Amino acid sequence: MDFPLARQYFYQEIHQPDKQINLAKAALHIAQEEYPELDPIEYLNALDTMAAEVEELLPPERYPLRIVQSINKYLYEDLGFVGNTVDYYDPRNSYLNEVIERRTGIPITLSLLYLEIAQRIDFPMVGIGMPGHFLIRPDFEDVGIYVDAFNRGEILFEADCQQRLSQIYQQPIELNRSFVEPVSNRRFLARMLMNLKLIYLNQNELEKALAVIERLLLLFPGVSAELRDRGLLYYQLGQWTSACLDLETYLIQVPNADDADAIRLLVERMRQDL
C-alpha cells in the first residue's frame, strides 16, 4: 500500500469490525499526517491519566447524572477545556493531539475526548451525530439526557436538542429520531474528516484536502461524491489521468447526477489534451 506511514496505521485501525476500532488511535493517526513527529502513545497515556484523575472524583453513588457532573467538573473547571468559539475553523481544532495540548476544540473532537475518558472509567457513552452540532449521551436505555461537550458539558433533553437545531438552522426544525441515533465509529471518523475537508477546501489547501478525501475513501470505499471531489482536486492539481479515472467512475455510478453534464464536458476536455 503506497501510503504515508500514518495513513497505513489509520488503515490498519479502521480495517477491523466497527466496534473494535479505537477512536482515539484512529484520530491520532489522522493527526500524524499533519504532525509526523507525533507519538500516539503519549496522548493515549494522557487520556489514561485524565481518566484516572476523574475516577478519584467519582461519588460512591455512580448514577449517570453524577458521573457526567464529575467529568464536567474535571474537564471544564479543573483543566479548563473550552469550545473554540474564537477560531472555530482553525484546523487544529480537528486534531486530537492539539485539542489535548491547547484544551480547546470543536464539538466532535471535544466529544471524542469526553467519550475516551468515559470509556476508561467504564461509563458507556455514544456519539450522537445531530445535524450541525455533535453531541454525546450515556449509553443506557431511556436515560433521556444528552451532553454537549462543546458547551462545558451542558446537559440537554430532547426538547433542548430540538431548540438547538432550530437555532442552528434559524427556523423551526422537527427533531427526527434519526437525528439523535448513535453513530458508528466509522461515521464518527468520517464526520471528523469531513470537517477537515471543508476547512482545507475553504483555505485552498488542495493537497491537504486531497489527503483527507483519500482517508474518507478508506473508510467508505467507492462513495460517489468523494470520488467526484477527488477527481476535481486531481484536475486542479494537474493530475489529469487520475482525475479522468475518478470522474469517469463517478459518471458510471450516478449517470443522471445534477452535475453529470458538466463533469462529462470536463472529462472530454482533459482526454483531448492527454
Residue stretches low in confidence (pLDDT < 50, at least 5 long) are none
Q: What is the count of structural domains?
A: 2
- Note the beta-strand portion: 5-15%
Tertiary shape? globular
Strand order across the biggest sheet?
A: 1-2
* Helix and strand composition category: mainly alpha
And the CATH topology of the largest domain?
C8orf32 fold
Write down how many β-strands occur, each being a DSSP E stretch of 2 or more residues: 6
- On the 0-100 scale, what is the average pLDDT? 95
Order of helices and strands: HHHHEHEHEEEEHHHHHH
Q: Provide the CATH architecture of the largest domain.
A: Roll
Q: Helical region count?
A: 12
User: Any idea what the radius of gyration is?
Assistant: 20 Å
CA-to-CA gap between the ends? 27 Å
Task: Report the top-level CATH class of the largest domain.
Answer: Alpha Beta
| Amount of helix | 55-70%
Report the major sheet. Answer: 2 strands, parallel
Question: What would a concise description of this structure say?
Answer:
This protein has 274 residues and is mainly alpha-helical.
